[in-house]
Amino acid sequence: MNFNERLKNIRKRAKVTQKSVSDYLGVTLRTYQRYEEGRIEPPLSTVSALSQYFDLPVDCLLGNGLFSNWDDILSHKEPILLYLKEEVISFPDDFDLSTLSESQLAHILPAVFTKITFDGSSMSFFLQLPTDSLPFSIHAD
After folding, report:
1. What is the pLDDT of residue 31?
2. Across-strand partners of 116?
3. Full domain range(s) for residue 126
4. What would the pLDDT profile of 21-40 be if each residue is shown by its tens digit?
5. Looking at residue 117, what DSSP letter applies?
6. Number of domains comprising the chain
7. pLDDT tens-digit readout, 30-81
């Protein structure tokens, strides 16, 4: 998936208009539309501003690393979070991971996984560290 497609998908999931993003960036609506159309690529400073606007890592916008298949990860959010909770990190039983936003996932998952791949109905998880040596656990307050 190209940058422009990722940007458009992220904006639509955030339920914001092209106009609101263009206003935030300080560019014309037509310039922003060209970003989403793939006619022009934004400068690095604009990519950084988009990252701040959507509260997502720049790598998510660029499709680097774990984020190379971000849309697939989001569409399989529930089984990924179930695996995370049951196999990787000790969460309290009443801790509801399903309420995590896209932004929260984008900040948490790269701390745990280097890659998540999909092959038909199966998923493969590549951990940053072996499960028994993860340096943290999450506890409810």
Report:
1. 98
2. 125
3. 66-133
4. 999 999 999 999 999 999 99
5. E
6. 2
7. 999 999 999 999 999 999 999 999 999 999 999 999 999 999 999 999 999 9
